[in-house]
């Protein structure tokens, strides 16, 4: 991947609905080479898809919670069970494996505190093998972007 490919990606991250003509203009290419590069990025799986950015509050999910989870033990069976159950929960938008005192970091969205309590009691606790759950509620967002930083 070269700088021009990265420029194309960053332009699409800013506006995924840009036409090929607009994209080509933004990255200083003529339309045909720009489209060729774009198709190659898609074929190679560098660009995995396109999506819409949606206002969570307007959608009905105004509460975002970051949850750190530590497992009781690290057996292969427990890890596999935990991860497969987490993947099946629609409320979990992201789940990251961590170093440090917590094993997993989840980004969860719910409608309200009652929905969060229900999520923890009826969706997370039944998974089993969890040593601790530490939650942090988002009460404001300073920065949110889907645009990757430039790479030299």
Automatic annotation (TrEMBL):
Domain of life: Bacteria
Keywords: DNA-binding, Transcription, Transcription regulation
Domain HTH asnC-type intervals: 1-62
Pfam families: AsnC_trans_reg, HTH_24
InterPro entries: AsnC-type_HTH_dom, Dimeric_a/b-barrel, Tscrpt_reg_AsnC-like, Tscrpt_reg_AsnC/Lrp_C, Tscrpt_reg_HTH_AsnC-type_CS, WH-like_DNA-bd_sf, WH_DNA-bd_sf
Protein name: Lrp/AsnC family transcriptional regulator
Organism of this sequence: Acidimangrovimonas pyrenivorans
């Amino acid at each position: 991947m070269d700088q021009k490919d990265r420029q194309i990606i960053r332009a699409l991250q800013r506006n995924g609905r840009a036409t090929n003509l607009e994209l080509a203009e933004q990255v200083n290419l003529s339309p045909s080479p720009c489209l060729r590069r774009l198709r190659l990025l898609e074929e190679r799986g560098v660009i995995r898809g396109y999506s819409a950015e949606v206002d969570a509050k307007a959608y009905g999910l105004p509460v975002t919670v970051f949850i750190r989870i530590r497992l009781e033990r690290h057996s292969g069976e427990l890890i596999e069970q935990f991860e497969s159950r987490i993947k099946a929960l629609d409320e979990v938008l992201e789940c990251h494996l961590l170093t440090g005192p917590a094993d997993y970091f989840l980004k969860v969205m719910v409608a309200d505190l009652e929905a969060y309590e229900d999520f923890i009691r009826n969706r997370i606790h039944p998974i089993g093998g969890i040593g601790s759950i530490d939650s942090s509620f988002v009460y404001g967002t300073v920065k949110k972007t889907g645009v990757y930083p430039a790479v030299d």
